[in-house]
Design brief:
Length: 337
């Protein structure tokens, strides 16, 4: 599930916490003295949980020892949160009416429904950052939402959370086709990218079947792909750089704009993380050149696929997409027959 609470319940257990626990907590960052995993150079005194374990006779596995129940969180004052969101966003950017919130109670997995208490529709990275900062300060969980076509319930506020929907962040910020770079906001619809560059002979290859509805933000969070994946790969093969709002509201950039770089690939970690690491607010993506449509074969006879198949398998170039069309198909494009 994609939500994360940003303020954890206090815990007496050392080490990394799992579950609906926080990514960060103001003023209580785990220090080595707390027993948290610390990255240390050779020779340093180890306080890591990877330090030598006690003898087998005395060792108790972390699985055996029951962890203390998390302290109950204080209830969230949603009317107060709504007022603070209204101070950050224009009036149209806050959805609080019960009937309007119905539109956000599920994604493509319609059996799984939870109506959120509040939805916000930011238009800029600064607004996303201000909202996430507010959540961080007030201990409010939040969920990122694109177009809500996901099939895993990731955009659903399973526990009462602020839904931050990117559907008003729909601008293509920069088109630099000389360098094969497009910079887009997260709410841009997948097929709009292809539409924006097709005049120049390019297209955006990761194309889920939901491409006329799903957003680039959701594509990045789910590392989506479609029929062109075999040749061109999925979303992670096309996103060069991300601007990300982290769970404490700070804004950072992942990736470098180059296809290959020597450092740790944090961009790759974020892509496919299903909204659990932060909210991506802007992307630089690289569209491939659209290959020409080629008619491979046409036949009225049964078994007409055989010669067509042979021509594909013996061809030196890999097709990016293969369409089979029947001459009986109404409105069939002549180049595919
Ligand atoms: C009919 C249909 C066909 C589909 N076909 C395919 C297919 O061929 N291939 C495929 O891969 N998928 C497919 N899907 C699934 C879905 O469309 C994709 O996963 C798509 O990428 C989701 O995009 P979305 O904008 O709707 O995201 P949402 O459903 O709104 O969100 C999905 C996840 O992304 C997170 N998220 C959204 N925006 C951001 C952001 N800006 N930053 C961080 N996290 C964010 C959410 O928290 C959630 O976890 C299909 C779905 C349907 C309904």
């Amino acid at each position: 599930m994609s939500f994360f609470a940003v303020t954890p319940a206090p815990s007496t257990e050392p080490g990394i916490e799992l579950g609906d626990h926080p990514v960060s907590q103001p003023g209580t960052a785990a220090s080595p003295a707390d027993g948290a995993v610390a990255l240390q150079g050779p020779g340093a005194t180890s306080t890591s949980s990877l330090a030598p374990s006690p003898s087998p006779a005395t060792a108790t596995s972390p699985i055996d020892s029951p962890s203390p129940a998390p302290a109950p969180r204080p209830p969230i004052d949603w009317p107060a949160i709504e007022r603070q969101c209204r101070a950050i966003l224009p009036a149209r950017g806050v959805v609080a009416a019960r009937q309007e919130l119905l539109a956000y109670d599920c994604d493509g997995l319609t059996l799984h429904r939870h109506q959120p208490p509040l939805v916000v529709l930011p238009e800029t990275t600064d607004q996303v950052a201000a909202l996430v900062r507010l959540c961080h300060q007030q201990g409010v969980p939040f969920v990122a939402r694109g177009s809500g076509t996901g099939l895993s319930g990731g955009a659903v506020a399973e526990t009462p959370s602020l839904v931050i929907a990117t559907s008003r962040m729909r601008s293509i910020l920069d088109l630099d086709l000389a360098n094969r770079r497009i910079t887009v906001q997260p709410g841009v619809i997948n097929s709009w990218v292809t539409r924006a560059v097709s005049g120049e002979g390019y297209y955006y290859a990761p194309d889920p079947s939901s491409q006329v509805v799903c957003s680039i933000g959701g594509n990045v969070a789910e590392n989506s792909g479609g029929v062109h994946c075999l040749k061109y790969g999925v979303t992670s093969n096309h996103v060069l750089e991300l601007e990300v709002v982290l769970p404490d509201g700070s804004v950072t950039r992942l990736g470098s704009g180059l296809a290959e770089t020597p450092e740790l690939d944090l961009r790759g970690v974020f892509i496919g993380s299903e909204g659990t690491l932060g909210i991506a607010s802007c992307w630089r993506i690289s569209p491939p050149w659209r290959p020409p449509v080629r008619r491979c074969g046409r036949s009225r006879r049964r078994g007409c696929c055989q010669p067509v198949w042979k021509s594909w398998t013996t061809s030196p170039s890999m097709p990016s997409m293969i369409s089979l069309a029947s001459t009986n198909t109404p409105g069939m494009q002549p180049q595919f027959c």
